[in-house]
Design goal:
heterodimer, A: 287 residues, alpha/beta, TIM Barrel, 10 strands, 41% helix, B: 293 residues
């Protein structure tokens, strides 16, 4: 059974960095589609989310490129199989790449052996299609077993499945350690859309139960202001999550574009990925 | 089985001088889409708010469009057209396109082929009777296609469907040898997303302005290098109200009168796309296959 280890947290980041912003792009397209009680996928929701793989992911890639910044792309194995050109372009652009389960399953409802099979399947998809050895992982609906499985059956260096802290921490188990890099609830999904999970009954107003682009922008701006202020005297980070089918829509990508433009002018703000921040964190606190 | 054809969308050019087509689609119902109370009792709250579209909203919208000389597409529920025929006749007479939105808000997702065909025919029959013209386009009222809907539409002589939400541009289905154009739209800028049901409303009329202006600015910038079009999904019961109608007027003020914006009807888009999009492979691609823009 895994346990947490809390070394002394770093007080500051190297190189004069005041606030690192970690953009995670969830490239999952239609994987988390809601189903009707008859088990059939909701065609409305399929179509709404397919936009992510067909268009949204490309648009997010373009925005990051235009600003010259790198992020972390968390990709479902099944999405990579359906839209391999996106993943190849992400790799070519130099973003960090991590696994995001096979088909965005409600992992918390699955037994450990099924979860392990899905992890292994995803690992092999990344190797086969991209030649990429996975080092990082995020399960949005993590189970009781997720961390133990990652520690005992993978050599992943970091996990980003937890929502419970401002800063990374270490998890030990199975004779090794993994760096937990938590995320937060100011994602585009939390701010923008009501997403019915595939575990709950489908609603007639699933993803289009939406907030305005300005609401999203203001949510990010408020989070940034709080974190930037806190970062004056201790280490802080901003894990920002966007989804291909949500923030990839034109009206909402403008909110992301405007947010990046806004924060870029603040001293000590850098955009980085989970791999690099992990290095900074390890270098800054003695493990 | 309808198969999406692959084509090189980036090579498509809109008519000379057009940078960004703008397609206004108005969904027109009178409460058929409102959930009933137990025992099939009418819901005068939500149903009544939707009836507004047929009683008043559509007239307000027609007046605004006439002022700007803009032609739009009205997707009409058959029973609404029967109950409020003058409105649909007036829209058609003013030169707007009339297309189908079911007979009475039937969900086609699990319907048999026979039932789907009868709903489609019944709706088209009512609309053709009122307008005197063929109905060429369709949108499922709940935005949910059944597995055979596209094939049936093609067999029934339809030119386009506009139920899907998964792309920035039209594309073409091969339905057993017949071509059917898909004109995808989005709920991310739809009026009912911000001023509709269920409560709470999110953003209100100014939220609509925010979404439309953002959408326009991004698509306008992208249209410099790639073909794009701007499509809005509007409800006569929502945008037909005075406050959102004023927001639409302000949005049209921004666009109208510039020749680079082509206020096109769905059939004009579909015909242009059929004639100018280059299908590169004769065999169909999987509906879900990814492709670069």
């Amino acid at each position: 059974m895994w346990k947490e280890k809390h070394p002394k947290q770093p007080v500051s980041w190297p190189n004069g960095v005041r606030l690192p912003i970690l953009i995670s792009v969830h490239h999952q397209s239609e994987e988390a589609t809601c189903a009707f009680p008859d088990g059939q996928p909701d065609p409305f929701d399929v179509s709404e989310r397919q936009y992510g793989g067909r268009r949204g992911a490309w648009r997010l890639l373009e925005v990051l490129d235009r600003h010259g910044i790198k992020g972390t792309w968390l990709i479902c194995g099944a999405t990579m199989e359906k839209y391999p050109a996106v993943s190849r372009a992400v790799k070519k652009a130099g973003h960090a790449i991590a696994g995001h389960t096979y088909a965005h399953e409600m992992i918390c409802n699955l037994p450990a052996h099924v979860e392990l099979e899905l992890i292994k399947k995803t690992v092999s998809v990344f190797e086969d299609i991209l030649g990429e050895r996975l080092r990082g992982w995020r399960t949005c609906y993590a189970s009781h077993n997720t961390l133990d499985l990652l520690l005992e059956h993978t050599d992943f260096e970091w996990d980003g499945s937890m929502w419970n802290d401002d800063l990374p921490y270490v998890i030990e188990g199975g004779g090794r350690q993994i760096l937990e890099m938590p995320f937060a609830t100011y994602s585009d999904a939390a701010l923008a859309v009501s997403i019915s999970s595939s575990a709950s009954p489908v609603t007639p107003f699933s993803t289009y139960h939406s907030n305005t682009p300005d609401f999203i922008f203001n949510g990010w701006k408020a989070a940034f202001e709080g974190l930037y202020e806190m970062a004056a005297n201790k280490a802080a980070m901003m894990p920002l999550v966007v989804h291909d089918f949500t923030a990839g829509r034109p009206s909402r990508v403008k909110a992301l574009n405007d947010f990046i433009s806004y924060v870029k002018s603040f001293e000590g703000v850098v955009f980085t990925d989970h791999e690099e921040l992990g290095k900074w964190w390890r270098d800054s606190c003695s493990l | 089985m309808a198969l999406e054809l692959e084509h090189e969308t980036n090579k498509v050019r809109w008519p000379k001088g057009v940078r960004l087509p703008v397609v206004l689609t108005f969904e027109h119902q009178s409460g058929e889409g409102a959930p009933l109370y137990p025992g099939n009792r009418p819901n005068y709250m939500i149903g009544g708010a939707m009836q507004y579209g047929a009683r008043r909203g559509i007239w307000n919208i027609l007046e605004l469009l006439e002022k700007y000389g803009i032609k739009a597409t009205f997707l009409v529920v058959g029973s609404t057209a029967e109950n409020y025929p003058d409105q649909v006749k007036a829209a058609s007479k003013a030169g707007h396109e009339i297309a189908g939105l079911s007979y009475s808000f039937e969900s086609l997702r699990t319907a048999s082929a026979d039932r789907e065909r009868s709903v489609i025919r019944r709706c088209a029959g009512v609309l053709e009777g009122l307008t005197g013209s063929r109905i060429l386009g369709w949108r499922c009222p709940d935005y949910r296609l059944g597995p055979q809907t596209l094939d049936i539409l093609a067999e029934e002589g339809f030119l386009w469907d506009s139920t899907l939400l998964n792309d920035d541009l039209p594309y073409v289905f091969d339905c057993g040898g017949q071509r059917l154009v898909e004109i995808p739209f989005t709920t991310s800028t739809a009026d009912k997303t911000f001023i509709g049901y269920p409560y709470p409303q999110r953003g209100g009329p100014y939220g609509l302005a925010n979404a439309w202006n953002n959408e326009f600015e991004i698509l306008y910038a992208e249209s410099e290098t790639s073909p794009r079009f701007l499509i809005l999904s509007l409800q006569t019961w929502a945008t037909g109200r005075p406050a959102p109608l004023r927001i639409l007027r302000q949005f049209l003020d921004r666009l109208a009168g510039h020749e680079e914006f082509w206020f096109a009807q769905s059939t004009e888009i579909a015909k242009w796309w059929l004639d100018h999009s280059m299908v590169t492979k004769s065999e169909g691609a999987s509906h879900v296959e990814g492709k670069a823009s």
